[in-house]
Amino acid sequence: MPLGEFELIQRFFASAGACRDDVVLGVGDDAALVVPPPGVEIALAADAIVEGVHFPAGLDAEAIGHRVLAVNLSDLAAMGAEPAWALLSLTLPRSDSAWLEGFTRGLDALARRSGIALVGGDTTSGPLAAVVSVAGLVPRGQALRRSGARPGDWIYVSGAPGEAAAGLAVLQGSLPRPAAAERLVSRFRLPEPRLALGNALRGVASACIDVSDGLAADLGKLCAASGVGARLEVASLPVSAALVEVAGADATRLCLAGGDDYELLFAVPGDRVGDLPELGVTLTRIGRVVAGAGVEIVGEVRGEGPLGGYDHFLKEGRTTTARGLGGPSQ
Length: 330
What we know:
The chain has nine helices and 13 strands. The protein is globular, with a radius of gyration of 20 Å. With 330 residues, it is α+β, with helices and mostly antiparallel strands. It has two domains: 135 residues, CATH 3.30.1330.10; 170 residues, Phosphoribosyl-aminoimidazole Synthetase, Chain A, domain 2, CATH 3.90.650. The strands form three sheets. Strands 8-10-7-11-9-12-13 form a seven-stranded mixed sheet, sandwiched between helices. The longest helix has 19 residues.
């Protein structure tokens, strides 16, 4: 028998997420009540994931629950903020208990691990989509921004960009699925927001952004916000062995243009490089901030397709130029 909206909320979401002392009133009332500590700024972010746009039809519910929270936590990581509270709005074709159990399991596990409390939201009927709004706390005046990079700063990226986009291609059947592909599929299903890294970069990085639409495109956004340009060296990109094995000649292009990685891309002044944290995630120097505008990609880029990343309305980015075998990408 299908559950009603109130029963659904009470059964699946009333106790989801971390338990926090700063939550006065959580799920079940008209609004949540929270008490922020003194001396902080509140970072707010909201992202939606929609079936057929952000994830393929048939993706397991646990992955969807994890992803909708992860993409928002990644925004907090890029600001150097510590997660505090979340709101969830969920649109469902029907109240399927088995699906909801999987969704809640994925969301709840990540919420508890990251210390964020689910304090409210909404459920309604319609095409499958989920929206999470998050609030994070950052010491006053210490938030990371996109706008602080200066010529001469070094550019770094965490992890292995391109793996998640390749994982999606594997799920969609456009790339093969050897054993190495399971790592790539996992990177798409269960992205890991770099919260500890973002926290540690406060006071070290001059600018930061998370890689959601593609490395080259998101570097272009950082440069635009900072009023600078960037020179990105293809030879320095952290193209993983698994990505090469599965994607072959397209591996470098996926590293540059693939989205959904939720790694951190950041600029660091030369005198702060020695202060970069060691947190078990690889940090790779991939280029340098320069005077001017836009991103110059220097080196050989094989394969077909634009380097500008994903745009929901333009369908491609327009922030990069490339030099080398790949030719210019506008």
